Amino acid sequence: MSSLECAREDLVLGAVLAGRWPSADEELVAHAQQCEICREVAEVAVVLRADHDHARREVHVPVAGQVWWRSAVRARLESAQAATRPMAWLHGVTAAIALGVLFAIIGMAWPSLIVAADWAREVAAPLIANGEVSGAVSGVLRQSMVIAVAAAAGLLVAPVLLYFVLSND
Amino acid sequence: MRELALTDMERLGAFDEAERTFQMTEEAFRVFYELTARPVRAYLGRMTNDDRLADDLLQETYYKFLRSNAVFDSDDHRKHYLFRIATNLVHDHRRRPRVEVPASTAAQEALAAPVDAHNADRAAARIDLSRAMEHLKPRERSLLWLAYAQGWSHEEIASAIGVKTASLKGMLFRARHRLAVILRNPGGRS
After folding, report:
1. Residues B154-177: tens digit of each pLDDT
2. Which of A81, A127, B60, B164 has the fewest CB atoms within 10 Å around its CB?
3. How many CB atoms lie within 10 A of CB A151?
4. Using CA of residue B65, residue B66, residue B71, residue B74, what is the dihedral sign?
C-alpha cells in the first residue's frame, strides 16, 4: 500500500455509508484512530454522508411530469428558432445579390450614360446659344427631375425596407 | 431579432414531438427521474451552495440529458452521464461573471430553522461544511461528494467527472486531506 491509501479504508467508508460508524467493529475503529488515512476518511465521510442524508430528505424536486413538460416546450421552441435561422440568412444573401446586380447594371450602362450626357450637351448648346437658356434649363430639369427623384427614393427606401425585412426575422 | 413564442396548440404539439426527439419515453423518464432527481439535486445544492441556482441547474441537467444522443449500456452508465452533465453545468456557471454572491444554503436554513440543541448542532455542522467546501476547488468538491456522500467507486467517479481513474486516487487523497484540515480548524485555513 502506498502512503495515499490504506487497505482498510474501504471498510471504514463502508461502515460510515451503512450508518454503522463509530459503532462498527471495535478493532476497525481502533485501527482508524491509529491510521491517519482511515481517520481522515471517517472524519470526512461522516460529515458528508450526514449532509447528503439531510439534503435528500429536505430537498424539494419538481415532479417528473413538470420537468418533462418544460423540456418538451423548450425543445419545441429551440427547434422553431433553429428553423427561422436559415430564413434570416436567405434574406441577407438576397439583399447582397440585389446590390451586386444593381452595381453590375450601373457598370454596364455607364458608357451609355456618358454618350447620353454628350448628346444632351450637344442638344442644349444651340438652344443656349440662341438665348433660350431658361427654356433649355427648365426642359432638362423637368426630364431629369423624375429620374433623380426615383433614384433618391430608391436609395432612401431600400435600406429602410431591408432593415424591416431582416428585423422581422 | 424577434423573440419566438409558442401558442397553446404548439405547446400541445411539443408534447408529442418530445416523444420522438427525446432519448426516452415519458414513462421511462419518470422512472429514471424518481431514482435520480434527489441525489442530483442534493449534489447540485452542495456544489453551488444556492438553492435557486440548484433548482435551475436541475431542470437544465435533465433537459440536456433528454436532448443528448448518447447511447447507454446500463442504468449506472446513464446515471453517471447525468452527473457528468450536472458537473459540467456547475463548472460552466462558475466560469460566468458573477452578479451576486448568494448566502449559503445551510446558513439560510439555520436562520429559518426552529432553535433546539440537536437541530442547532446539525445546522452548525452543515454551515461548517458549507464554509469548508467553499475553500475547495470545484473538482475537489465533486470528488469528495461522489466518493464519500454517494459512495461511488473510483471508476464511477472518473466516468462522471471525466478524469482518468489512475489519477483519481491522488486527487481524492489531497482533497480529503484539505477538507479534513479545514473541518478540524474551522477558523483557520489549510
Report:
1. 999 998 888 899 899 899 999 999
2. B164
3. 11
4. positive
Angle (CA) B134-B139-B143 rounded to 5° is 100
CB B29 to CB A68 under 8 A? yes
Residue type, A74: R
Question: Chain B residue closest to A4 (CA)?
Answer: B173
Asked if the model's pLDDT at residue B103 lies above 90, the reply is: no
Name residues whose C-beta falls within 8 Å of residue B175's C-beta, 6 or more positions apart in sequence: B136, B137, B140, B141, B143, B144
Interface test with A, best of B8, B56, B82, B148 (most A CBs within 10 A): B148
Q: C-alpha cell of B147?
A: 466518493
Q: Is B52 on the interface with A (CB under 8 A)?
A: no
Amino acid at A66: Q
Task: Name the least confident of A28-37, A38-47, A131-140.
Answer: A131-140
Q: Which of residues 138-157 of B touch A (CB under 8 A)?
A: 144-145, 147-151
What pLDDT does residue A116 have? 86
Count CB atoms within 10 A of the CB of residue B83: 25
Least reliable range by pLDDT among A23-37, A133-147, B13-27, B129-143: A133-147
Considering only CB atoms, which chain B residues are within 8 Å of A44? 144, 148, 176, 179-180, 183
Query: Does the pLDDT value for residue B1 go beyond 50?
Result: no
Residue A139: what pLDDT? Answer: 67
Residues in A touching B18 (Cβ below 8 Å): 68, 71-72, 75-76
Provide the residue type at A119 as one letter. W
Alpha helices, DSSP H, located in chain B: 8-21, 26-48, 51-67, 75-95, 105-112, 117-134, 138-144, 154-161, 165-184
Do B182 and B190 contact (CB within 8 A), yes or no? yes
Of the partner residues A13, A69, A168, the one whose CB lies closest to the CB of residue B148: A13
Read off the C-alpha cell for B160.
462522471
Of A24, A25, A32, nearest to A7 by C-alpha is A32
Q: Do B180 and A84 touch (CB under 8 A)?
A: no
